[in-house]
Specification:
Layout: H1 8-17, H2 27-30, H3 40-52, H4 64-96, H5 101-104, H6 111-122, H7 127-131, H8 142-148, H9 155-188, H10 215-223, H11 235-245, H12 255-262, E1 267-271, E2 274-279
Antiparallel strand pairs: 1-2
Length: 283
């Protein structure tokens, strides 16, 4: 079956549920030859002909449990991207009112920024009063915040700020719901063997986009190893890797094939002793 958009998904899942072994093929391997007439019927005949002589290789697709976890993680990433767009809309509205809060605070979605934005939406306009909402951990002083909050509170920009803030809050609540769903497939993917207790280590300071459950502990009982011990691998990076490939890499025959699937190997195009291109694909 040729992988085209998402149209293959329902038929693939139906055939697989009926016991068929379905090979999902990259369209670059099954495209028609130049100059041949192209119709859906001819495409099917061409794919059949290539498959009959062994020229089509199946693309990697994880098991059902991993596919379910991957769907939740990808949906979570989409929601976080949407939330970041709403934050940009808040920054735009503040800038249009000449409120330089983004230049004083490194993150307007922090404790100080959220409290000040809520106070503005409630109707507070005095800069000195708004500056009193400063959190004690904020590096900027009240004087600096008050100076940054001296602007023009026009009605249309306040309305834009309100909508952006409410949309951002809604996106965060959606992310929390997805986090609750992510725990379910992780629980079903737990390994059967007994594992020693996981060594506790200090967790970094909590961030807005971090899941509400203990990702490190959940992955430990799925994989049997603490992936965060690998340098450069955070909890979310490890969770993303497991959601894309599953708890094991046995479907990849060699390390080279796994690296090629990841997109880390350059695709060399060489002719006459000269390299025309050697780019790595997006992975």
């Amino acid at each position: 079956m040729e992988s085209t958009g998402i149209y293959w998904v329902p038929l693939y899942e139906l055939l697989q549920a009926e016991g068929f072994e379905v090979l999902l093929v990259d369209p670059s391997y099954s495209h028609q030859l130049r100059g041949r007439p192209k119709t859906d019927r001819r495409d099917c005949q061409w794919i059949y002909r290539l498959h009959s002589v062994g020229l089509l290789a199946a693309a990697f697709r994880p098991d059902d449990k991993t596919c379910q976890l991957r769907a939740y993680l990808r949906q979570r990433a989409n929601l976080i991207r949407q939330a970041s767009q709403h934050v940009q809309h808040m920054q735009k509205a503040l800038e249009q009112m000449n409120l330089k809060l983004t230049e004083i605070l490194s993150d307007i979605t922090g404790v100080t920024g959220r409290t000040i934005i809520r106070a503005i939406l409630r109707g507070t306009r005095a800069a000195e009063k708004l500056a009193q909402y400063r959190d004690k951990a904020c590096k900027a002083s009240e004087t600096e915040i008050a100076q940054a909050l001296t602007g023009t509170y026009r009605e249309e920009h306040l309305f834009e700020l309100k909508l952006a803030y409410e949309a951002w809050q809604f996106s965060l609540k959606q992310v929390e719901k997805v986090d609750g769903q992510i725990v379910l497939p992780l629980g079903r993917m737990k390994c059967d063997r007994a594992l020693p207790p996981l060594t506790l280590k200090r967790r970094p300071s909590r961030k807005i986009n971090v899941p509400r459950f203990d990702v490190r502990m959940a992955l430990y009982y799925v994989v049997g190893l603490d992936l965060t011990e690998i340098e450069g691998i955070s909890e979310m990076t490890a969770l993303t890797i497991i959601s894309e490939i599953g708890p094991e890499v046995s479907k990849f025959a060699t390390v080279k094939k796994f690296c090629s699937w990841l997109g880390r190997c350059p695709n060399w195009k060489k002719t006459g002793g000269r390299v025309k291109s050697s780019r790595t694909r997006r992975g």
